[in-house]
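Encode chain A's predicted structure.
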Amino acid sequence: MQWWKEGLLVRVRISPEGLAVALLYAVACWAMRTLSLDQFYLPAGVRVAALLLCPPRLWPYLLLGEYAYFAHRRIPQIDMYGLTWVITASVVLMPAVMLIVRLHRRLLARTTIAGMISIAACAAAVVSLLNLGIAYLLLSPVRDSSFLTSLLRYTLGDFIGILILAPLALLWIRRSEETWTRKSLAMTVAALLAMLLIGLQATPVPASVAAAGSLQLLLILPIPAIALTCLLGWRGAAIGVAALNLIVGLSTPSDQPESFDATTFATQQAIAIASIALLLLGARITHFQQQHRLREEDGRNSLKLARRSHMASEMDLRERAAHLRRLGDGMDLSLSEMVGWLHAQGHHGVADSLRHTTEVHSRLFRAQASMIYPAALERLGLYVALQAGGVRQAWGDSHRVAQPWLMGDPCQLSPGLQLAAYRSIVEAVSILLAGEEGQLVVRARSGRSARQRGIVLVAAVLAPGHTLNRQTIELASEQLGGRVMAYNGVLRCRRNRIRMILQEAVDPP
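Encoded structure for chain A:
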């Protein structure tokens, strides 16, 4: 019992940040109350939005701000309603909503929008029950009105206030997840302006519902919000729902906070249901957009890996071709020395025959080395590689491939794309030579646009009425499809031709 005599040491650390939060919260509640009615109660949204925005360590300061707001508002009402009601009705609301938000933390982590709607419904119902229950217990004049009617009115007013501000708070919390582009900002501004113009023409609701065309305008008021939801997902739903409920709520004709308008109340019920649907629809749209974005990113990563794999294979072939060229140079040097020695020994006939044979085999050897990797492509481009070296010699020896038609500047393409085009057209011609009869023609056209650059390759049988057989088409699809897909291209085998399109994105300057 020593503490009973000496007392308890309580250390309280006051944070300037927390005091600023409390002051800001109290001012926000006061300002929102001046714009609110019982059927359109914005301070309920301020309460939930503040709890979502602030970490739990600042919640005591929010409680302090709540009590400061109630002290400013309800202390002058002590003579009218009594001290017991002022204290009881003020101290329990924020702790109850704190408990609701705390219990929803796991649901918020799994599904943010559904969790927010659940918080809005629970907070609106619990706070309305507390307010009305305390009032019915302590204030006898209130008992004359219908409890259920008042509960529905207050619950809907709180729910609408939460639907206006809580989604905007979530939008701020998750602002780093998705960036706003100029296009999305322009669409948002356009939708809000359209809603504002429609709202100005269709409200105030009671005065204009009977007017010609006003009901139709009121019915189309949610259309910009729906469009914004479809375009931007839950972000558009959050903004559209807030604007929709705000326009209808602020346009309610009233002169006192306790004023009630039955026509607006019916409209608010329908809009509250539509708001829930829009928020859930926006969440699903965002989910599928993210899934689509992830699939696109996975596809791009797969294409990058395929291109890197092809380039790694090409670099391996490049090293092998370079090694073969060095071997050829060594053999040419040795044979040249042998030819010189034979001339020195007087064996001129043998030396000339050996030199001729050496030149022929050296040319064939280098042609085969260039078939392994086209070194000319790196220096002079794709079209030169197709018109010189082993490929052109092999096509010429077949006596079935006409002079290629090559248009455009292939040097605008990346080396990787040029190599892929080279391999693709060479393999396509080889497939046609092995599986089809008749003369062949090769065409290529390269070009670029602002965002893409690419090349169109065609290997075709010269006879217009010819049709490729099924084995040729299957073989072409198997051998060429992977490389074409790696460069975001298209492979088509139709009638007498194999047509390929290979393309890549232009790197930004």
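Confidence is low (pLDDT under 50) at residues 205-213.
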